[in-house]
Amino acid sequence: MDYKSAIELVRKAREHCDQIFIHLIGNPNPHRSNSAGMRWHDDGKLLLNLAAGKRGTWHNFSTEEHGDVCAFVQAELNLSWREAIDWLASWFGSSTLSLPASTPSKISPVAVARPQKETKTFGLELFHKSHPSLENSPGYAYLQKRLCGFLPTEVVEGGSLRFSPGHRRMEGRTFPNCIGALLALITDATTGEPTGCHRTFIDANFDRIERGILGNQGVIRLFPDHLVETTLAVGEGIETCLSAHLLLEGPPVWSCINAGGLSGLPVLNGVEALTIYADNDENEIGQRKARQAFERWREAGVAVTLHVPRATSVDFNKMLVELVSLEVAE
After folding, report:
1. CA 158 to chain CA mean position, Å
2. Domains detected in the chain
């Protein structure tokens, strides 16, 4: 594809802008959209113009960022202009762009950094373009600092955990001290189909800044399916699950991300024994949700074991860190 074809592709993207936006960030807010423009978010402050003369241009009134369809693809998927053109070409089923290393600035729109919408599409693309090995990455260093990074090869190499360097935006916020994010692939517990990506933003000291989900609820298969066989352990957060696995030398473990995910975990065919690692929350939500999962799985005929830390406001990661601290002090 040459320059002329690239410009034609941008024009074509303008014509199909509504479909491209929906593909990237989901359906618009129907109460704030009309024939002149589609709007996203509860406040409708992300506008895609559909009117003649403005079609394909967008404006975020929260941040005053704006651009054309190609610029939106750049920002949403964190791509260069050349990569965004290739993405559009792939979306339309065309060949990718073949350009010299230096692209003329007159046809290269300015890349804009706009808030990342919480979407499955963006999350999965972010995960799959990250390096498949977690080893020697800041993400691995973060887990090691939390004392839960002593992981088997199956977890570190080509598994559900990856690291994305430089990724530091979430819901319109940029974390200035962030060096990247630990990524975790979220999948449907039953089918294994990807449903999203969990992000843990990390600073230069390998401490957590913030975390959140791109996409939908599911499980993080910290250990792959072929290691599960008939026994499985589950808990809430990634760090909690890995810490409990180390402390109790338990079976392969999956993260359900939060208490709601744990309580809603469906009974899985082939699993004969389930171990549940619960958080000991002061408001007792963690214990209550874990107990719900315990009862449901037991009623299904599965042998279930429930582990809960004795101290209040403690999960297994905090328990592991405090235990090691005590041993060092002694």
Report:
1. 16
2. 3-115 (3.90.580), 219-329 (3.40.1360)
